[in-house]
Amino acid sequence: MMSTLPTTGSGSITDVAGIEVGHFTDTRRPTGCSVVLVRGGAVAGVDVRGAAPGTRETDLLDPCNAVNTVHAILLSGGSAWGLDAGAGVMRWLERQGIGLQVGTARVPIVPAAVLFDLLVGDGSIRPDAQAGFVACEAASRQPPAQGNVGAGTGAAMGKMFGMEHAMKGGIGSASVTVEGVTVGALVACNALGDVLDPDTGMLIAGARGPGGIELRDTRRSLLRGEPLQPILAGTNTTIGVIATDTTLTKAQARRLAMAGHDGLARSINPAHTLSDGDTLFALGTGMTQRSPGMTVLSVMAAEAVARATVRAVRCAHSLHAGTTWLPGVAGDAPRRA
Q: Cα–Cα distance between 142 and 151 in angstroms, integer?
């Protein structure tokens, strides 16, 4: 007999009380950034599994360190250049009177992670401080747009055999509610590997075969000994934010971020490679006193991340940028071999 998880909710990270999401999408080339705002502050943790991360303010999230509250998390395209968008998020929060009180000043705490999208269009155009500010201006409690927006605008995936065989990545969101507690995730998928349905194991998107018509199945291709193209470290990466409305300690937030990577491993194959900077943040807004316990919260986090990753590619539309063509699942998708 099959059973189903008793879940409710509209299916996005904004189902979590206290969470807002805003995107900035650059019209000059496919890139952008996304911000997760917590005006009331949240306890946060982070876990980095990829070997080529691009991050900011992650050390302060260590449970041994002093700062307990963050006010936003930034996800951005533009590789390391995209970290500049964090200054714009700080500026916006400061204008709202939000931040850590330090004497007569307020310092907003904004950890961030970036993905590499410089090979899609003009790589000299990257998210900057103004992009981060505009993303905050656009933030709301509404379910965020998915696919080719924000940090997922220039994302590609299935790149093990070269960009000419890749497909369009994107950004997606999902949520899970159990016993009155919600865990949501926002994930920007720019993976080196393929994306698959974690329930069935069937490929959804990934590296295309030589004719560009069928999915080649990266895992099976590598196990057959097929040669892969040389891959530059850091030119991939899946980044995301997990949020829950229950109360967490910093140590528990870190554990939740760690559990979220189980969701990446179920939906991306291979995940956490030497060329990915896979990074997940976790937030606890403390808006409810209920808690199903860390074991259930961890299962919920992995589930929300897996669903959000799948949605990121299912909502991605095909992209033409210069000589680059990236077919998306939402249009022109290759079929499974």
A: 17
- Residue 147 CA to residue 335 CA, distance in Å, equals 19
**Strand, coil or helix: 157:** strand
DSSP secondary structure code for residue 317 in this structure: P
Q: With contact defined as beta carbons under 8 Å apart, do 317 and 328 qualify?
A: yes
Residue 104's CB is within 10 A of a number of other CB atoms, namely 5
In 3D space, the residue among 217, 161, 166, 223 whose CA is nearest the CA of residue 189 turns out to be 166
For the question of whether the overall pTM of this predicted structure is more than 0.90, the answer is yes
Reply yes or no on domain 13-336 having CATH 3.40.190.10: no
The DSSP 8-state label assigned to residue 334 in this structure reads P
* pLDDT of residue 4 exceeding 60: no
> Where are the domains positioned within the chain?
13-336
Higher-scoring residue by pLDDT: 230, 57: 57
DSSP category for residue 12: S
Beta bridge partners of 186: 173, 241
Closest CA to 244 of 172, 304, 307, 187: 304
